[in-house]
Amino acid sequence: MTRYGRVVLTLIFSGVFACALLGPAGSASAQTIPLQPRTGGPCATVFGYLPYWNRTATLRYDLLTHVALFSFGAKGDGTLTNPSGWPWTSVINTAHTNGVKVILVATQFDPDTALTLITTPTYKNAFFSNIRSKIIACQADGLNIDFEGSGAYRSYINGFMAELTAYLHAEIPGCEVTFAGPAVNWGSTWDLPGLAASCDGIFIMGYDFYGSWSSTSGPSSPLTGGSYNITNTVYTQYQTVTQNNPEKLILGVPYYGNHWLTSSEDPRSSAIDHVSSLTFATAQAQSQTYGLLWDSVSQTPWYRYHDGTDWHQVWFDNADSLRLKYQLAKDAGLQGVGMWCLGNDTGRTELWDLLQEQFVDACLPPLDAIVVGQNYPATMMAGTTATAWIEFQNTGHETWQQGEVRLGTWNPQDRSSNFYTSGDWLSPQRPSEMDTSPCPLDSTVRFTFELTAPATPGVYTEAWRLVKEAAAWFGPDDIQFQITVTPIPIPGDFDGDRDVDQSDFGRFQICLSGSSVIQSDPACEQARFDGDSDVDQDDLAMFQGCMTGPDIAGDPDCAS
Fold first, then answer.
1. Most buried in the list 54, 88, 166, 501, measured by CB within 10 Å?
2. How far apart are CA 277 and CA 214, in angstroms?
3. Burial 459-474 (b: 16+ CB within 10 A, else e)
4. Exposed, middle or buried by CB within 10 Å (0-12, 13-18, 19+), for 46?
């Protein structure tokens, strides 16, 4: 099949399908890669629909967990149509490189066609097989079913989803199967608990409370107010699921708004005409021109203007209103949130910043840290002093302040350190304040302090941890310095047995060179008591003053 001047083929490698684009010469120019491991990212599901018309949009994959490719048309006979520009190899590979799951979206918005598909075994089985091949071909990670409209198909959808889910789980281990569910169960025609049980999750389409069909202007996604709103959706429409299986629900929010001509400037005034839907980026920019208003009934923003003839009203969601919905999802313990649709904020950062705030930064503990560097002496002579430091990165969301966050002794907590240095440490249990302050999230700071080796030689293990005074200990609990403390040398103790006796005198004699005769042998360094370059009678006299005899401890200060 030829599309856009390129040949789109499905290749098979070792029994596994892979999407590829073939260039003019027939050589493979791109292949999909599997999902890569991920570190970090959101602490809840962030599921974004990416429609074909926005497929080239720049996305913050670090703030997404799922990108849903919209859409594959599901025909009544089980065959599928590809989205425009398929295959989206670049999107898939970028997502997978960043550890973001790729979900294929199958759509059918005609209820009669949906009914034919899901109630005709031959067509249903063909759909199962065809969608399986699509998922395998592009190494996708799951499927989202978006069948909409009122009709008899709703009575059969739960059985269909249960069969589809079981089939894909068996055929493609780890494959996620979700359904795009309604915000309001009009006429109670959906069995929402049964729907949730039939698949891995429901993406609640938490929008379109107002639209082109509405007799008045109003918010697409009211948090509160009126008979139906998002709060009602989560706690009433999906009550059983929210109470028993909240991890099955993803709250979808709108990245768009609606523009009406209205009969007056008043909120929710009669709609003369629905002009259009418009993206968040467009609405946010226009609201800065016309003046942003806040509707306290629905807890959503809107704006209005008069063009000289008519009143215009635009209702949309921005970071302030979405923050409230995200908090609702978190309070209810839902799996996460999502949006229709990615790319509608192109050129703006507010909605990405909100995801960072709500699902990355807010999930961090108030106080946490990692060690990014440290330095200390592995060996010290008893009684000597050396400088040490530990550098931390703040990985919690609370800013560290001088006088609050300190380095403390650990294992056991608050013990008196063997390396306490009077005049430099805050106390025997607190080596140091931060070198600089403040230290906000992702910043690094050092704690520099002096170590004074104890008088008793041996191997010492010193453990440290961060502490916010009168609040909490935090950060790594395995920071250790292992320091070998060596004894202070005893002048004249050539054999290292800690006394000065005839054995040492014999070695001293070997080094005796006489006055003004340079003794250059490194082994005789210890024999030069007076510090000059020879070993003579002056050195001998000092050596004799240090002699103690066999097994009698020498005096480290005997030559001073």
1. 88
2. 13
3. ebebbbbbbbeeeeeb
4. buried
Query: Which residue is associated with the tokens 């080596």?
Result: 431
Q: Which residues contact 211 (CB under 8 A, 6 or more apart)?
A: 220, 258, 274, 277
Per-residue pLDDT band for 19 (boundaries 50, 70, 90) equals low
What are the backbone dihedrals phi and psi of residue 69, each rounded to the nearest 5 degrees, phi first?
-85, 115
Task: Dump strand ranges (E) for 425-471.
Answer: 432-433, 444-452, 458-468
pLDDT in tens, 200-221: 999 999 999 999 999 999 999 9
pLDDT of 20 > 70? The answer is: no
Peptide bond into 560 cis (omega under 30): no
Q: How far apart are CA 258 and CA 273, in angstroms?
A: 11
Tokens found for residue 61: 């994959």
Of 310, 217, 315, 225, give the one whose Cα is nearest residue 269: 217
Alpha-carbon span 325 to 221, nearest angstrom = 9
Task: Give how far the C-alpha of residue 199 lies from the chain's centroid of Cα atoms, to the nearest Å.
Answer: 27
For residues 360 and 354, give the distance between their C-alpha atoms in angstroms, rounded to a whole number: 10
What is the pTM assigned to this prediction?
Answer: 0.76
Over residues 164-205, the pLDDT tens digits come to 999 999 999 999 999 999 999 999 999 999 999 999 999 999
* CA–CA gap between residue 51 and residue 341 (Å, rounded): 7
The Cα 246–Cα 328 span in angstroms is 12
3-state secondary structure 261-319: EECCCCCCCEEEEEEEEEEHHHHHHHHHHHCCEEECCCCEEEEEEECCCCEEEEEECCH
Whole-angstrom CA distances from 397 to 108, 361, 369 are: 44, 6, 10
Nearest to 359 by CA among 154, 559, 60, 103: 60
Structure tokens at 415: 């013990």
Q: Which position has the token pair 């709250």?
A: 251
Burial class (CB in 10 A: 0-12, 13-18, 19+), 15: exposed
128 to each of 76, 123, 155, 167, 221, how far by Cα in Å? 12, 9, 19, 8, 34
Residue 2 identity (one-letter amino acid): T
Rounded Cα gap, residues 62 and 45, in angstroms: 12
**CA–CA separation, 102 and 96 (whole Å):** 7
- Whether the pLDDT of residue 3 is over 60: the answer is no
Show the CA angle centred on residue 17, arms to residues 12 and 19, nearest 5°.
100
Order of all β-strands in the sheet with 28-31? 2-3, 6-13, 16-22, 28-31
pLDDT digits (tens, 9 = 90+) for 292-329: 999 999 999 999 999 999 999 999 999 999 999 999 99
Please check the confidence at residue 107 and state whether its pLDDT lies above 70: yes
CA angle 339–344–350, rounded 5-degree value: 80
Q: Per this entry, what is the length of the chain?
A: 560
Strands (E), 62-211: 66-74, 80-81, 101-108, 142-147, 176-181, 201-205
What phi and psi, each to the nearest 5 degrees, are found at residue 491? -55, 130
